[in-house]
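Exercise 7b. Backbone tokens:
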């Protein structure tokens, strides 16, 4: 029997599911590629671009205290290596924000995410949770 004095735990599964769906939508994009006969459902971004988009988005959320900023790396859809990159970039962006403002910090995030993800070839090889598109 449940102790009535004990609080009900937060429901993290629906939150995680929503965050994962949002991150997936963000990573795959919604734009028209201009290719006739190719559906948006079959379009996949290269791992480097997915990595840079995910890290840029979540680092920006963290920097500005966005609603979903407190999710963990799995809920954000990051691999282990992507999380290391994300963590380094967030630290550098906070310093940049204090010294030069939020706009400069956002530019740093975009630049470093692209550079670090390219150097790590998308940083997708370190997580059991990540699978290449099929």
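Sequence design result:
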């Amino acid at each position: 029997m449940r102790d009535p004095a004990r609080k009900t735990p937060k429901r993290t599964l629906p939150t995680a599911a929503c965050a994962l769906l949002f991150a997936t939508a963000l990573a795959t994009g919604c734009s028209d590629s201009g290719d006739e006969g190719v559906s948006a459902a079959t379009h996949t971004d290269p791992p480097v671009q997915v990595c840079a988009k995910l890290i840029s988005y979540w680092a920006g959320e963290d920097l500005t205290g966005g609603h979903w900023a407190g999710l963990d790396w799995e809920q954000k859809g990051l691999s282990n290596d992507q999380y290391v990159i994300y963590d380094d970039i967030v630290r550098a962006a906070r310093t940049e924000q204090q010294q030069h403002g939020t706009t400069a910090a956002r530019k740093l995030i975009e630049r470093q995410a692209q550079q670090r993800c390219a150097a790590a070839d998308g940083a997708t090889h370190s997580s059991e949770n990540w699978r290449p598109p099929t």
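Instructor comment: The two ends are 46 Å apart (CA to CA). The chain has a mean pLDDT of 77.
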